[in-house]
């Protein structure tokens, strides 16, 4: 709460999804965590049951709408992902070092390093159950495109350092 009242951090959190997600998860209750962008549209019922059934599979740690790969690391796109609270506690928080992007890649990599799998429900988009109006979130900040690109570039470099040279940060 104190973090959210501090004006300096509020602007940072506009960009830092890890900080945003971690703060929200810290005050949440329940068995599952659902992260959803503001450009996700739920057209029909049934998606939640499919997500819950996916998470009940013993080997699955995270489910979501879109499965992707970056640097040969499969991940669930942070636009819509869900996990059990116990899984989040095992994997740990989303890494706040990332200023904008790759926080979902990092978290899914750590999840898979613990032996858990990801599961994508892209068919829900094909069936018209869920729609991701991709780009709507970034378009909200279109006046800040250069800053977004700068922060994304820094985050990607930080990611590479984290797993290649774990004792070095670009901020050192």
SSE map:
Blueprint lengths: L1 H4 L1 H9 L1 H10 L5 E5 L3 E3 L4 H10 L3 E5 L2 E4 L2 E4 L3 E5 H7 L11 H11 L3 E4 L2 H4 L3 E3 L3 H5 L4 H20 L8
Parallel strand pairs: 3-7
Antiparallel strand pairs: 1-6, 2-8, 3-6, 4-5
**SSE run:** HHHEEHEEEEHHEHEHH
Mean pLDDT: 86
Strand content: 15-25%
Radius of gyration: 16 Å
Query: Helical amount among residues, as a percent range?
Result: 40-55%
Major sheet attributes: 4 strands, mixed
Q: What's the overall geometry?
A: globular
The helix count comes to 9
As residue ranges, the low-confidence spans are: 1-13
Class by SSE composition: alpha+beta
What separation lies between the terminal Cα atoms?
A: 29 Å
Output the strand order for the largest sheet.
1-6-3-7
Total number of strands: 8
Summed up:
The protein has 172 residues and is of the alpha+beta class. The protein has helices spanning 2-5, 7-15, 17-26, 47-56, 85-91, 103-113, 123-126, 136-140, 145-164; strands at 32-36, 40-42, 60-64, 67-70, 73-76, 80-84, 117-120, 130-132. The protein is 47% helix and 19% strand.
Report on this structure.
By secondary structure, the protein is α+β, with helices and mostly antiparallel strands. The chain contains nine helices and eight strands. Strand 4 and strand 5 form a beta hairpin. The relative contact order is 0.18.
Summary keywords:
alpha+beta; globular; 172 residues; two-stranded antiparallel sheet; disordered N terminus; 19% strand
């Amino acid at each position: 709460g104190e973090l959210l009242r501090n004006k300096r951090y509020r602007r940072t959190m506009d960009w830092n999804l890890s900080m945003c997600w971690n703060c929200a998860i810290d005050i949440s209750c329940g068995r599952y965590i659902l992260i959803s962008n503001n450009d996700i549209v739920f057209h029909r019922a049934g998606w939640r049951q499919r997500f819950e059934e996916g998470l009940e599979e013993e080997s699955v740690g995270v489910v979501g709408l879109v499965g992707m790969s970056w640097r040969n690391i499969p991940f669930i796109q942070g636009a819509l992902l869900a996990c059990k609270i116990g899984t989040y506690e095992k994997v740990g928080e989303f890494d706040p070092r990332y200023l904008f992007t790759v926080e979902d890649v990092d978290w899914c990599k750590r999840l898979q390093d613990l032996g858990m799998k990801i599961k994508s429900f892209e068919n829900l988009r094909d069936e018209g159950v869920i729609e991701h109006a991709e780009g709507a979130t970034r378009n909200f900040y279109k006046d800040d495109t250069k800053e977004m690109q700068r922060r994304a570039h820094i985050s990607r470099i930080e990611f590479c350092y984290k797993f290649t040279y774990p004792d070095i940060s670009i901020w050192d």
